[in-house]
Automatic annotation (TrEMBL), chain A:
<feature type="transmembrane region" description="Helical">
    <location>
        <begin position="208"/>
        <end position="234"/>
    </location>
</feature>
<keyword id="KW-1003">Cell membrane</keyword>
<feature type="transmembrane region" description="Helical">
    <location>
        <begin position="255"/>
        <end position="280"/>
    </location>
</feature>
<protein>
    <submittedName>
        <fullName>Multiple sugar transport system permease protein</fullName>
    </submittedName>
</protein>
<keyword id="KW-0812">Transmembrane</keyword>
<dbReference type="GO" id="GO:0005886">
    <property type="term" value="C:plasma membrane"/>
</dbReference>
<dbReference type="GO" id="GO:0055085">
    <property type="term" value="P:transmembrane transport"/>
</dbReference>
<keyword id="KW-0472">Membrane</keyword>
<dbReference type="Pfam" id="PF00528">
    <property type="entry name" value="BPD_transp_1"/>
</dbReference>
TrEMBL record, chain B:
<dbReference type="Pfam" id="PF00528">
    <property type="entry name" value="BPD_transp_1"/>
</dbReference>
<feature type="domain" description="ABC transmembrane type-1">
    <location>
        <begin position="94"/>
        <end position="286"/>
    </location>
</feature>
<keyword id="KW-1003">Cell membrane</keyword>
<feature type="transmembrane region" description="Helical">
    <location>
        <begin position="90"/>
        <end position="110"/>
    </location>
</feature>
<dbReference type="InterPro" id="IPR000515">
    <property type="entry name" value="MetI-like"/>
</dbReference>
<protein>
    <submittedName>
        <fullName>Multiple sugar transport system permease protein</fullName>
    </submittedName>
</protein>
<feature type="region of interest" description="Disordered">
    <location>
        <begin position="1"/>
        <end position="23"/>
    </location>
</feature>
<feature type="transmembrane region" description="Helical">
    <location>
        <begin position="33"/>
        <end position="51"/>
    </location>
</feature>
<dbReference type="GO" id="GO:0055085">
    <property type="term" value="P:transmembrane transport"/>
</dbReference>
Length: 358, 301
């Protein structure tokens, strides 16, 4: 509310305010907001990278690029569905493993009886701050045919696979191992029927052996960050609660399940949703380690959209794929925000069941 | 884990007669031993890959292939290091990385703190919506911006230039958010005193509030340094000319380009090692600021 008396000072502030934010408005506007709008337009065209996507002669195709991804029975849909399947399995493995590992490490590091926690905390967190490309190079070497991983495995009498050229799905392998189905001759009921261009058998492949190496890398790099979040939350758990449990004679396991874990629920939820949002964006590791190979089993939507645009020069489809990916991530973010808000409201009981569904 | 969400209260205590007497030194020792065993095992898991990386950077190719796990190069050779500097474009990548990182970090610290200050302390029309927009942009996943950013750089006519590498990274929404949160915590009295002394908004920002923001500025500097030094996907769509490659881009090129031919792992691992060293030094020196950032992430939610 401006009064006549301080109009001068306020006017000063107003001008200064805009002057201070102009640079970020320009940069974020030009390189985040504007791009989204331009890409939205491009996803409705068949622009091939020549000239400007806004020139009059660029064919406007409406929603064709989107329907092609979901409805047309062709290679574009096959690749897109394969990438969704791959990423879904990747998420399914990475998120629970990294959450459990981060929580486990945090619990051990938080132990009052142990010394040298600073060192261990640093050691576990260090991989998270290094370059994803540099680390991918190291893991390529470790998972090489005669590499460190296979050397360790052979010490236990296991002969390791050729990680980056093995496209077999681990669920297929597992089913074969327990003798349910023969992976080399799967039942025709599964192979002849399917949905969205992939057979049921293909949908049920599980992550490929090659993808497992990437899963291992990502769990290894991200657990440290999430461990720190759990650690911060653990330090906020009142000691009295644990002591009360101890006086009541609860065992260590019971105190963990009934006292600590409920207190950590908001953090667990945060870690899982951040994990969900992050895992749908996996790109650097795929680019460096596998480029979607072998047999497209490490193809993910993010890499597919890059490949479609910059290698096949089909910018329209590439942009459409990235918008579908955008939509998936926005939905996950909204879910996170909504559930976190409910949780923060007094008596927000809806949060419990919602978490289970995640 | 099948934790019953309904059970909020502690369970009925199991009758444990004279339990605590049993928790003597034996149990404490055992649990300490178990704790250290787990910690040491996982430290190996998290650090040994770096040992492998360092050791193999100084091995011959044959030795690296035969003994990938061994931490001792036999024979020790710095040949791959020489080849990195003389046989690859590593010096160019390094130069570009240094340039990009320095310019990006300096401008992020300046621009983000200016915007954070304005959003926190200056009253001007549109402040609310602007802050909401900054929050919204923080949620935009970088990978879906790859094609869009290329479109804009192309349209602006700066594709394949230093400007394309640097300008889009010069400000970031998360940095603005961190600075705004910090300035919110500075007591208002400080600025009022400055204002009564006749200082305008610029002077108040530059000579009064900014010096107080040192912890936040250090955090932002470190995050910007680490982020721009490691940045990969942006360089992939911003430039094409090998003379403009930064370290991550050059490294990716080195790995995917020569996969079919000789494996040259000592060379690749050495280059990756050299690219990691600056961040490792910063990390060891300023650990607590990294930790603070991760925990800010926890508070944010």
């Amino acid at each position: 509310m401006t009064t006549t008396a301080n109009r001068g000072a306020r006017g000063d502030e107003r001008r200064a305010g805009w002057f201070f934010v102009t640079p970020i408005v320009l940069i974020l506007g030009l390189f985040m907001l504007l791009p989204i709008l331009m890409a939205l337009w491009t996803s409705l065209t068949d622009w091939n990278g020549q000239g400007s996507p806004f020139a009059g002669d660029v064919p406007f195709v409406g929603l064709d690029n989107y329907t092609q991804l979901f409805a047309t029975d062709d290679l574009a849909r096959l690749d897109f569905m394969t990438s969704l399947r791959n990423n879904a399995y990747y998420v399914l493995f990475v998120v629970p493993i990294q959450t459990a590992l981060a929580l486990g490490l945090a619990l051990v590091v938080n132990n009052r009886l142990l010394r040298g926690k600073g060192f261990f905390r640093t050691a576990f967190y260090f991989p998270s701050v290094t370059s994803s490309v540099a680390i991918s190079v190291v893991f390529l070497f470790m998972f090489a045919n005669g590499g460190a991983i296979n050397a360790v495995l052979s010490a236990f009498g296991v002969s390791g696979p050729q990680w980056f050229s093995d496209s077999r799905g681990v669920l297929h392998l597992l089913l074969g191992r327990i003798g349910v189905v023969d992976p080399t001759a799967p039942p025709s009921v599964l192979t002849e029927h399917g949905i969205l261009g992939l057979s049921w058998w293909d949908w049920a492949s599980g992550p490929s052996v090659a993808m497992c190496a990437i899963i291992a890398l990502v769990v290894w790099t991200t657990s440290g960050t999430f461990m720190l979040m759990f650690l911060a939350a653990l330090q906020n758990v009142p000691v009295q609660l644990d002591e009360a449990g101890m006086i009541d004679g609860a065992s260590r396991w019971q105190r963990f399940i009934y006292i600590t874990l409920p207190q950590l629920r908001p953090t667990t939820f945060l870690v899982m949703t951040l994990g969900l949002i992050g895992t749908w964006q996996v790109f650097d590791q795929i680019y460096v380690m596998s480029q979607g190979n072998p047999a497209k089993t490490t193809l993910t939507p993010a890499f597919l959209s890059y490949r479609t645009a910059f290698r096949d020069f089909d910018y329209g489809s590439g942009a459409a794929i990235s918008f579908v990916l955008f939509l998936i991530i926005v939905l996950l973010t909204l879910l996170q925000r909504r559930v976190m808000r409910e949780r923060n409201e007094p008596g927000g009981r809806g949060a419990g069941p919602a978490r289970r569904r995640v | 884990m099948a934790v019953s969400t309904a059970t909020r209260t502690a369970p009925a205590p199991p009758a444990g007669p004279t339990r605590r007497a049993g928790e003597g030194s034996g149990r404490v020792l055992a649990s300490r031993f178990a704790g250290y065993t787990i910690l040491v095992f996982f430290s190996l898991v998290f650090l040994y890959p770096f040992v492998i990386q360092i050791a193999n950077s100084f091995k011959t190719e044959a030795d690296a292939a035969a003994h990938p796990l061994s931490p001792v190069p036999e024979p020790f050779t710095a040949e791959s290091m020489t080849r990195i500097f003389e046989g690859t474009a590593f010096p160019t990548w390094l130069g570009n990385s240094v340039l990009v990182t320095v310019v990006v970090t300096l401008s992020r610290v300046l621009l983000d703190s200016m915007a954070g200050y304005a959003l926190s302390r200056l009253r001007f029309r549109g402040r609310g919506p602007l802050f909401a927009a900054v929050i919204a942009l923080m949620a935009v996943p970088p990978v879906v911006l790859l094609i869009p950013k290329f479109l804009v750089l192309n349209q602006l006519g700066i594709y394949n230039s230093y400007a394309a590498l640097i300008v889009p990274l010069m400000a970031d929404a998360a940095g603005v958010f961190i600075m705004k949160q910090f300035f919110d915590s500075v007591p208002a009295g400080v600025e009022e005193a400055a204002r009564i002394d006749g200082a305008g908004p610029f002077r108040t920002y530059w000579s009064v509030v900014l010096p107080m923001a040192r912890p936040a500025l250090i955090t932002l500097t470190i995050l910007s340094f680490q982020g721009s030094w490691n940045e990969f996907p942006h360089t992939l769509v911003a430039v094409q000319n090998p003379g403009l490659f930064t370290l991550p881009r050059g490294l990716a090129d080195l790995v995917s380009g020569s996969l079919g031919a000789g494996t040259q792992y000592p060379l690749k691992l050495g280059a990756a090692l050299l690219a990691t060293i600056p961040v490792a030094i910063i990390f060891v020196a300023f650990q607590r600021y990294f930790v603070r950032d991760a925990n800010e992430g926890a508070d944010k939610g």
